[in-house]
Amino acid sequence: MHRAATNCGMTLVELMVTLVVVAILMAVAVPGAVDLFRRLRIEGVANELGTDLQYARSESIRRREDVTLVSSADGSSYRLKGLTSGIVLKTVDLPSGASLSQGVTIRFESLRGSAAATGSIDVTVSGTTAKLTLAVDEVGRVTTCIAEGSFMGRIKPC
């Protein structure tokens, strides 16, 4: 009994066509993925900042001392600090490429945890024009909104 030989591989032309299709798909997908990762980084920084603003508010009530959140002069970090005692409660260095509005101070009063004045702070990441804004109202409530760009999920435009 003699069996006919069957081809088990790909021809060079088939391989080249496959590589061209993969290259085209990568060229289309990679820029979108990079932009998505940058937007996710902005959201991550904004979420941490929002949590820390709530922490500052609760600490102002617990410690019976005004607590401030101060962003650095270059926008690469921020710290939470007791206003009277000078105790630094937390210092946060942002991930590479992320930045905040520079030199912003938000103060929570010790009596009710309300904000001394309304304020906002912007979060950005280099390489994209997208921007999120965290706003603090008179009662100390923190809200996040989209200042520029578009984001997936439940964040609303400002």
UniProtKB/TrEMBL annotation:
<dbReference type="GO" id="GO:0015627">
    <property type="term" value="C:type II protein secretion system complex"/>
</dbReference>
<dbReference type="Pfam" id="PF12019">
    <property type="entry name" value="GspH"/>
</dbReference>
<dbReference type="InterPro" id="IPR045584">
    <property type="entry name" value="Pilin-like"/>
</dbReference>
<keyword id="KW-1133">Transmembrane helix</keyword>
<dbReference type="GO" id="GO:0015628">
    <property type="term" value="P:protein secretion by the type II secretion system"/>
</dbReference>
<dbReference type="GO" id="GO:0005886">
    <property type="term" value="C:plasma membrane"/>
</dbReference>
<keyword id="KW-0812">Transmembrane</keyword>
<dbReference type="InterPro" id="IPR012902">
    <property type="entry name" value="N_methyl_site"/>
</dbReference>
<keyword id="KW-1003">Cell membrane</keyword>
<comment type="similarity">
    <text>Belongs to the GSP H family.</text>
</comment>
<keyword id="KW-0472">Membrane</keyword>
<keyword id="KW-0997">Cell inner membrane</keyword>
<keyword id="KW-0488">Methylation</keyword>
<dbReference type="Pfam" id="PF07963">
    <property type="entry name" value="N_methyl"/>
</dbReference>
<feature type="transmembrane region" description="Helical">
    <location>
        <begin position="12"/>
        <end position="34"/>
    </location>
</feature>
<protein>
    <recommendedName>
        <fullName>Type II secretion system protein H</fullName>
    </recommendedName>
</protein>
<dbReference type="InterPro" id="IPR022346">
    <property type="entry name" value="T2SS_GspH"/>
</dbReference>
<feature type="domain" description="General secretion pathway GspH">
    <location>
        <begin position="46"/>
        <end position="138"/>
    </location>
</feature>
